[in-house]
Design brief:
Blueprint: E1 6-11, H1 19-30, E2 35-40, H2 45-55, E3 61-64, H3 69-75, E4 78-79, H4 81-86, E5 91-95, E6 98-102, H5 105-115, E7 125-129, H6 133-143, E8 149-153, H7 157-167, E9 170-172, E10 183-186, E11 209-212, H8 221-228, E12 233-235, H9 238-253, H10 259-269
Parallel strand pairs: 1-2, 1-3, 4-6, 7-8, 7-10, 8-9, 10-11, 11-12
Antiparallel strand pairs: 3-5, 5-6
Helix pairs in contact: 1-9, 5-6, 5-9, 9-10
Bound molecules: NADPH dihydro-nicotinamide-adenine-dinucleotide phosphate.
The site of NADPH dihydro-nicotinamide-adenine-dinucleotide phosphate has 26 residues, from helix 6 and helix 9.
């Protein structure tokens, strides 16, 4: 049992998680010592509930990653507006004997777009590709930045339609997409296997930033495609990962870390 302020990330698999190193770098910025561990949990709902309950006997806060984000949503006593909109929880906070669920993924993206990509989102036309959990989590935070519009397109159009209806935005099929977008966000999991959504290269002609939520040691196939098609800037999702962690840290400790040096340190480590 640690006597330090104790945090963890629940996931399966979890050995690859960068969260411990990110949060230790945040703690250095704050000038405190924390204990931040990885917790591998069997991928069933009962095991997850027990692991959370055991951890919060002494723990102060936790992150939640795949495959537990929707179970965390069901488990908590209270949900933030962001978690409700996302339908998923990535941050657990224990306060006044209440387990609160929040979702910082979308704010993490907005923070990365603003601070590292230098993108002012106000009045921008945004295209989101994909309609899974990540897409759902980023829509409200992007709308809150007063973008001009968001169009959603997904391989399975029915899913895009449902999600678009929830947020009163437009859904189009990949082939219906036309014109140009200031910001194009790849929220599909295609990059995991090196595949690119089946969309026209013309969409990138006036694109200021093409952003892939996925991250790896090198540019993703989507980033290469976007750059060749005329996108002025491209970025991967490592900055979003650091940004969501920073928002979690702020919720737990009231200290808002500077993401830029942490992002630089992770890129230099090159062991993504
Ligand atoms: P989900 O499994 O919930 O959704 C996957 C989405 O990708 C669906 O819309 C699916 O379409 C689409 N898709 C999958 N393969 C293809 C393909 N070959 N072509 C076109 N569309 C495809 O995944 P998540 O939403 O959780 O994650 C999406 C991505 O975001 C992942 O790469 C993940 O790593 C990344 N991510 C990054 C984070 C960060 O901090 N940087 C945080 C969270 C996620 P369909 O509906 O037709 O199946």
């Amino acid at each position: 049992m640690s006597f330090l302020p104790t945090y963890t990330v629940f996931g399966n698999p979890i050995a690859h998680s960068k969260s411990p190193i990110i949060h230790q770098l945040f703690a250095q910025q704050e000038g405190v010592a924390i204990d931040y561990s990885r917790t591998l949990v069997d991928a069933n709902q009962q095991a997850f509930s027990k692991a959370v309950n055991d951890f919060f006997q002494a723990g102060l806060g936790a992150n939640v990653t795949l495959p537990f984000k929707t179970w965390a949503f069901e488990l908590v006593d209270e949900l933030s507006e962001g978690a409700r909109a996302a339908g998923a929880v990535n941050t657990l906070i224990y306060k006044d004997k209440t387990l609160i669920g929040d979702n910082t993924d979308g704010l993490g993206l907005v923070r990365d777009l603003r601070d590292n990509c230098k993108m002012d989102l106000r009045d921008k036309r945004v295209l989101i590709l994909g309609a899974g959990g990540a897409a759902r989590g980023i829509i409200l935070p992007l709308l809150n930045e007063q973008v001009a519009e968001i169009t959603l397109a997904n391989r399975t159009h029915e899913k895009a339609l449902q999600l678009a209806q929830q947020f009163s935005i437009r859904a189009q099929t990949f082939t219906e997409l036309s014109g140009s977008y200031d910001v194009i966000i790849n929220a599909t999991s295609g990059s995991v296997s090196g595949s690119i959504p089946n969309i026209s290269a013309d969409l990138f002609s006036g694109c200021l930033l093409a952003y892939d939520l996925f991250y790896a040691n090198e540019d993703t196939a989507f980033m290469r495609f976007a750059r060749n098609a005329g996108a002025k800037n491209v970025a991967d999702g490592l900055g979003m990962l650091v940004g969501q962690a920073a928002e979690s840290y702020r919720l737990w400790r009231g200290f808002s870390p500077d993401c830029a040096p942490v992002l630089t340190a992770l890129r230099e480590k090159k062991d993504n």
